[in-house]
Amino acid sequence: MRLHALFIGLAWLAAAPAEAQVTPAYLDETIPVEERIEDVLNRMTTEEKVAIIHAQSKFSSAGVPRLGLPEIWTTDGPHGIRPEVFWDQWDQAGWTNDSCVAFPALTCLAATWNPEMARLYGKSIGEEARYRKKDVILGPGVNIYRTPLNGRNFEYMGEDPYLAARMVVPYIRGVQENGVATCVKHFALNNHEVNRHNTNVVVDDRALYEIYLPAFKAAVQEGGTWAIMGAYNLYKGQHACHNKYLLNDILKKEWGFDGVVISDWGGTHHTMEAIQNGLDLEFGTWTNGLAGGAKKAYDNYHLALPYLRLIREGKVGTDELNDKARRVLRLMFRTTLNPHRPLGSMLSEAHYDAARRIAEEGIVLLQNKGGLLPIDLSRVKKIAVIGENAIKMMTVGGGSSSLKVQHECTPLDGIRRRVADSVEVVFARGYVGDVSGEYNGVTTGQDLRDDRTPDVLRDEAVRTATQADYVIFFGGLNKSAGQDCEDADRAGLSLPYGQDSLIAALAKANKNLIVVNVSGNAVAMPWADDVPAIMQVWFLGSEAGNAIAAVLTGDVPPSGKLPFTFPAKLEDVAAHSLNAYTGERKRGIVDIEYKESIFVGYRWADKHTDKEPLFPFGHGLSYTTFDYGKPRVDAKSMFPDGKVTVSVRVKNTGKRTGQETVQLYVSDKKASLPRPVKELKGFQKVTLAPGEEKEVSFIVTREALSFFDDRKHAWVAEPGTFEALIGASATDIRGRVAFTLKTDD
């Protein structure tokens, strides 16, 4: 369709009389883009401007055939390119060439703590999108991990705004170098799924600016994202997809965003608010009061005929319309009208390699008592693999991020492939969870039905465990409703399907037990003291099994670090401790007050030392050990426009090559407003051979010392003493060094 529109425009040009064949300015690449945008905008009718600011199908918006302006095609991400659906239906279109590579979920990417992996991720998924002729990837997501019950946490980048900001910027740049736009989501304050359409978030400005906005700001001002997606929830009583405060005041005025604000599907509710409050491109609106949406309802969208009628009746002007159309045109010039963007590639060896590398770097070794891992295959005859998650494909399900993959290597397949014929690998189911394997018409093709009782399954698993040298239990969550899945939250922190009692029984049956938790969320582990080795592996995509096997056997050293805190119990999480979350579905507008303010995740744990986490933010072990030297600063004081450099030497004191993520936290020793005990302000991942030593340095500027003063509506760095803390996690601080911030006078 997009080529059809372009051909019409070129045909019009060719058919014009010779004396009229003057190339329109908007087609002249020698003219600055902003001038070309204004030229084409002036050629458009009001009707054409309205036509390009709302959807024409489930995932596309219209162009202007008369002027050769192509359609814009979006695709769900951010972990892979969604399969094709029919023009006006959610049903699968039945294509045979729309499979993709599934990249690891964004929790895994964040767990790499490696911006280079984020750039590789963006570049690779951007190439797949470009090859499939998609112009906008609906992702990545950077909403903050406020509660471990949020069903969509697996799509986001953790609890810390600095970490999320540093990881989202290279992802965006990698995607957009392909001429494909990122649409960073969900802006903003979408931190749980239950009641997501009717939750009105009540949050103070300090928390808004310090916790929930920084990753979005970095996406705009550093990553240069070409699109932002509004959220479903409300803020200050207005839906986020047409919210004056978020979209006009902050995003466009304060941050200078020149891209397109796209509504989430079904996120637009009011025509006048959509006109006035910053929405540019409307998708997926449910119309005529039909809960499931109306067919071919696109002309009834709020930014379609209802908008046009208001203009014709003189009830609204066209200033807002011109701004929306201008932004959509700018998106076109960056994507569909860019003749120099690469062609992309799909299902390539390089993409599978990227998916595997990211997965390997994101795997987190939580516990390794007695050095049980890595598995020395030369000393093993039989490995028992137990648990449904060892065989269940995880790329299907979870909501809009569900994928149709070319292939997916399960953990059991990966282990068997790695050990080949050298070790016997036996499997026992252990428990039965979700056997559906279907989402939105895509099926895994697996038949996981098993009618045996839980007792029979447990007895078989225990019996199998007693006969093996090593037992690897694969459990955790899956991507069915009520677990890690869109539009629903978890009921609690515990593992489902009786896994806790099964793990306890396995621990008694075999002392060489490894628990591999597959999830995008923290889970309770009441058996942690009885299990020597615990590994967090996330939803790892197409190369899941190969990546897991490589880390278990030591082919690749574990180097992931947790991007969020694993609490010992749900009551240790701020939102739940303060009764500031509801898991009940409710009608009408539901106010949720973020009572914890800026004290989210490790900031809350630091404030309440009696709430020691199960595993802290930033935690992750290696198969080697690292020694940290004493940190130092190059100056004991700095002026507001200056900087200090914090340095520390790190040495690999073990016998294996490994990667360590050195973390810099900053503590304000005295402030006029309450501040966290410390905040992450830097990190570097270094690779060290046995005995090798490297110096790691961080530059600290005024920005790293600042807090948002809601009384002044400004970022403030107050003179005084600060402390730089160097650590291997939020609780494993290896050294401290003090410096002062002076005044200008």
Number of strands: 29
Helix segment count? 20
Judged by helices, strands and strand pairing, the structural class is: alpha/beta
Largest sheet: 6 strands, mixed
N-end to C-end Cα span? 64 Å
Average pLDDT confidence is: 95
Estimate percent helicity.
Answer: 25-40%
In the sheet with the most strands, the strands line up as 1-2-3-4-6-9
Taken from the alpha-carbon principal axes, the silhouette is globular
Radius of gyration: 26 Å
* pLDDT < 50 runs, ≥5 residues: 3-16
What is the beta-strand fraction? 15-25%
Features:
six-stranded mixed sheet, 29 strands, 745 residues, 20 helices, 27% helix, alpha/beta
Describe the structure.
The chain has 745 residues and is an alpha/beta fold. The protein contains 20 helices and 29 strands. It has a six-stranded mixed sheet with strand order 1-2-3-4-6-9. The chain has a six-stranded mixed sheet with strand order 10-17-16-15-11-12, sandwiched between helices. Strands 21-29-28-23-24 form a five-stranded mixed sheet. A hairpin with a 4-residue loop joins strand 26 (707-709) and strand 27. Helix 2 packs across helix 12, helix 14 crosses helix 17 (544-552) and helix 15 (454-466) packs parallel to helix 16. The N and C termini lie far apart (64 Å). Residues 3-16 have low confidence and may be disordered.
